[in-house]
Write a structure and sequence with these properties.
- The complex is a heterodimer.
- In chain A, 23% of the residues lie in helices and 26% in strands.
- By secondary structure, chain A is an alpha/beta fold.
- Chain A folds into two domains: 5-117 and 240-308, FAD/NAD(P)-binding domain, CATH 3.50.50.60; 133-236, FAD/NAD(P)-binding domain (3-Layer(bba) Sandwich).
- Chain A has helices spanning 15-26, 61-74, 137-140, 156-165, 185-192, 287-308; strands at residues 5-11, 31-35, 79-81, 84-88, 94-98, 103-111, 115-117, 133-134, 148-152, 171-175, 197-200, 203-209, 216-221, 226-230, 233-236, 240-242, 273-275.
- Chain A is elongated, with a radius of gyration of 21 Å.
- In chain B, 32% of the residues lie in helices and 26% in strands.
- A five-stranded mixed beta sheet of chain B has the order 1-3-2-4-5, with helices on one face.
- By secondary structure, chain B is an alpha/beta fold.
- Chain B is globular.
- Chain B has a single domain, classed as Glutaredoxin, CATH 3.40.30.10.
- Chain B has four helices and five strands; from the N terminus they run βαβαβαββα.
- Classes of the chains: A alpha/beta, B alpha/beta.
- Chain A binds chain B through residues 36-38, 40, 43-46, 60-62, 65, 81, 83, 99, 129-136, 138-140, 142-144, 212-214, 233, and chain B through 30, 32-42, 45, 62, 68, 72-78, 90-94, 96-98.
Amino acid sequence: MAKTHYQLIILGGGPAGLTAGLYAARARLDHLLIEKGAEGGQVLLTDWVDNYPGFPDGLSGFELSEKMAAHAKRFDLQTLTANVTAMDLSVSPRQLTLEDGSTLSCDTLIICTGARPRLLDVPGEQEMAGKGVSYCATCDAPFYRGLRVAVVGGGNTAVQEAGHLTKFAEQVTIIHRRDTLRATGIIQEKAFANPKIDYIWNSRVTAISGEKGVEQLKLINNDGQESTLDVDGIFVLVGVIPNNEMLPLDLLTADEYGFIPTDGEMRTAVPGVMAAGDIRSKDVRQIINAAGEGATAVLAAEHYLNSTIQ
Amino acid sequence: MASDKIKAVNDADFDATTASATPTLVDFWAPWCGPCKAIGPVVEDLAQEYAGKVTILKMNVDDNPATPGRFGIRAIPTLILFKSGEVVDQITGAVGKAQLSELIKKAL
């Protein structure tokens, strides 16, 4: 019979999970990392990573996630490709239910399920997904060679990916609900110096329409004035929502947005259960933070295991 | 990205390959697309599960620009389900196995 109990289960294989995996494997903990697809998480959506220390020339998000996975696997990281659909954290050991109905149990759990792009939630968005509405500039930019696109958002992801889009698109319009960008200094500098990027400030998208694909956006500004913008595509990069569907949110005392609070050692409200990376309730969602939190969480798990040995 | 269960298809042989009465799922992908990589193991799993009932193909959109254009594909991964050459339904993004299973069942 296949093994069903582990000292430590790591749920999710983004930067937090892979770093936790690296530390767990090196600590020789009896561990398993469960990931539903390929390792990498949201980093896979990132065109270029220029702020991860140790890579002075930058590297693609794809390459960074491959390196992180390879690094952990060098120390015999144990992985399972599966979708965890539910868990019971009120019992010891903790129980996880997989999509196929089987269960696994663990003494300690590190939740690194991350986050995914937030939707605009406007008419036409779902109908046009894949037909001009995109959440991943890295994936879809090459389909817009010589075309006009809009980017919604003003944070790091939106402004950086707008720059990436200009390698293909003729014109990129950033639509932002405020009158200044939130992206970090160097990313703003590059965007303002890019002649292919223009801006519509203080405005929101209220509808997306078109015959076979996206043709027009309906906008409203902060004064209530409506307008339209003709585009061939719209990239929605307005922040993230937590991947928390499998989590007992009450027990983990999730915040109002569904993210999981922890202390400085990444411990959640449930003993022996840690959270790391974008699923945590926090302000800063950077790859480097996620990695650091993954490492901290394993040390907390080890501490918990040592303290509970009879 | 091709394997023993999943064959690569190109612009030239696309119509002939998808004309079959056996349901055919085509995974449009590219090497630079992270989510395409993420969905890879799920598609592999389904190819095993539905072996003999559904043909699963992969098309690299970098090497084959004509077919994605014909189907209005503007995002990848996009998976389109064909039966007898007609589009049954399609799905975009790195969705889970359950969702892809639901899609396939529409043609069974």
